[in-house]
Design a protein that fits this description.
The structure holds 2 protein chains of 2 kinds.
Chain A (H helix, E strand, L loop, with lengths): L5 H8 L1 H20 L3 E2 L5 E2 L12 E2 L2 E3 L4 H9 L4 E9 L11 E10 L3 H20 L3 E4 L2 E4 L5 E4 H9 L3 H6 L3 H9 L9 E7 L8 E2 L2 E12 L2 E8 L4 H17 L9 H9 L4 E7 H8 L12
Parallel strand pairs in A: 1-5, 9-10
Antiparallel strand pairs in A: 2-4, 3-4, 5-6, 6-14, 7-8, 10-12, 11-12, 12-13, 13-14
Chain B lengths: L1 E2 L8 E4 L2 E11 L7 E8 L5 E6 L4 E2 L4 E12 L2 E5 L6 E5 H4 L11 E7 L2 E6 L3 E9 L12 E6 L4 E5 L7 E5 L4 E7 L2
The chains are: A alpha+beta, B mainly beta.
């Protein structure tokens, strides 16, 4: 007789949560199928990740492991797809914590002809539907509180959240270089309490690949979804202007060089597709491991993933 | 120097001139922002706690800590004297450092003395010690299964809670981490 290895004990302990996770994935796929989204699989090893100042793609030989399938999926939109989704592994170097893994599972989807507000409604409907399918109710317990997914979500702008919870404007927090610390310590814990919270309209310097608001170009049409203080999803009205995209990439790449991060080749194929034309569209990336945490009331991501 | 990627629960770091033990750690990253390394820390000298968040660019100093196996020899006024069994070097450790652990210090027992910048700041005792019960109510028979306890004193006056079947003169084992009764070693 060999003793039971500790790892097997751990795996046995999370068996029920892994089964719940499997059901969650199946309901999510079914929701997208019913809404006429095409399931896509883009490569996991890619030549040229999008340069982002604070996200590092691990090297894989001459390639990189993707941090996100964004650039590859947007090329499909340029080629004529209108509704696509993907569930797959993504990688971020040195990200390991109670709700982070270097390898995690991302749900990402795009829809042509909608903006980030329409996307917010779609996401809300999806989570309610999935909750009902999994547990027969849209009321869940997570992190010691009851959360009603059926309730009208809270929608609050980034600046209003900074004023409300930190008594400082988001612009002032950026100027004093405490934007992220304030977000982490004072704002995020207040979000998604009792119902879903969509935090929206991020400062332009945190636009990432989002377009700026037409009537107020100091904020980007971007939102993040929170449930029980946990950030679940990031979405935007996509930037379609190739010229602006090139200059943002250049700025991000310069910031990466300054901090000694991996040098990426220029994402030429993506930029050429953008030159050709990306239709007006929106997209969202949602962490599936974290969603599994929410629906199984887990306190640590290790309870819902093997990575 | 440590970099932030070294941070984890259990690591000892030097912050604001004090040595700290990281008692809880989490990696955070508010949407598309910088990574934040959130630490709960316990001061190894004062015992106080604090939260500190580091950024990836931060460098954290290593404390000059040294743990040595030493034998407790004797009490000298306000000091407890430990000696290195190899070099016979003696170290005087103050009452403030030992605190309530003095109840469990037994002559010639092996301890670990922790030094910070050359000065002793903590002593780890053997996990279990044996003591004779000098005072307790007479034992009750047949009551070994319940959690009912009674007070008992050991030779230096320290009071512990013991099961009802313990009698005066019994030898008991005490867990020095909690200061609580662990089991009976032998009867009187």
């Amino acid at each position: 007789m060999f003793p039971k290895p500790k790892r097997l004990q751990t795996l046995g302990n999370i068996q029920a949560r892994l089964a719940m996770r499997a059901g969650l994935f199946s309901h999510i796929r079914s929701f997208f199928e019913r809404n006429n989204f095409v399931a896509i699989e883009t490569p996991i090893r890619i030549k040229a990740p999008a340069p982002e100042e604070f996200i590092e793609a691990p090297r894989s030989g001459e390639y990189f492991l993707r941090c996100s399938p964004e650039l590859e999926m947007k090329q499909l939109l340029c080629a004529g797809f209108e509704r696509i989704y993907q569930i797959g592994a993504c990688f971020r170097e040195n990200e390991r914590g109670k709700s982070h893994r270097e390898e995690f599972t991302m749900l990402e989807w795009y829809e042509v002809g909608v903006d980030y507000c329409r996307l917010l409604e779609f996401t809300t409907a999806m989570l309610r539907d999935v909750s009902l399918k999994i547990s027969g109710t849209d009321k869940i317990n997570f992190r010691g509180i009851k959360i009603d997914l059926g309730a009208e979500p809270e929608i609050i702008t980034v600046n209003d959240a900074y004023l409300k919870y930190a008594k400082i404007s988001s612009a002032e927090a950026l100027r004093r270089d405490i934007f992220d610390e304030v977000m982490d310590e004072l704002i995020e814990p207040e979000l998604g309490q009792g119902r879903m919270t969509f935090l929206l309209d991020y400062p332009a310097c945190r636009a990432s690949l989002a377009r700026l608001k037409p009537d107020s170009c100091d904020v980007a049409e971007r939102w993040e979804l929170y449930i029980g203080g946990l950030e679940l999803a990031n979405a935007y009205s996509e930037l379609t202007d190739a010229k602006i995209q090139r200059s943002r990439f250049a700025a991000e790449a310069a910031a990466r060089t300054n901090t000694g991060m991996n040098l990426y080749p220029e994402p030429t194929e993506f930029l050429e597709a953008l030159d050709y034309g990306l239709p007006e569209c929106s997209g969202c990336a949602l962490g599936m491991d974290r969603l599994a945490m929410v629906f199984s009331n887990a306190t640590d991501i290790s309870e819902v993933t093997l990575s | 120097m440590f970099s932030t990627s070294d941070l984890k629960k259990g690591l000892k770091v030097l912050v604001d001139g004090y040595p700290w033990l990281i008692t809880d750690f989490d990696f955070c990253k508010p949407g598309k922002g910088t990574a934040l390394y959130r630490c709960k820390m316990k001061n190894l000298i004062t015992g106080s706690t604090m939260d500190r968040t580091f950024r990836p660019v931060d460098k954290i100093d290593k404390p000059d800590l040294d743990e040595r196996e030493m034998v407790f020899s004797y009490v000298d006024g306000d000091f407890f004297v430990f000696s290195d069994s190899a070099t016979y070097e003696e170290v005087h450790v103050g009452k403030d450092v030992i605190g309530d652990k003095s109840f469990f210090l037994i002559e010639n027992s092996d301890c670990d003395v922790l030094f910070f910048n050359g000065a002793p700041i903590d002593v780890t005792l053997p996990t279990f010690i044996e003591k004779i019960v000098t005072e307790t109510e007479p034992g009750a028979r047949g009551d070994t299964a319940t959690n009912v306890t009674k007070s008992a004193k050991i030779d230096n006056g320290y009071e512990i809670q013991v099961p009802l079947f313990i009698n005066q003169g019994d030898t008991v084992r005490i867990d020095t981490r909690t200061g609580e009764y662990a089991e009976r070693v032998s009867k009187a």
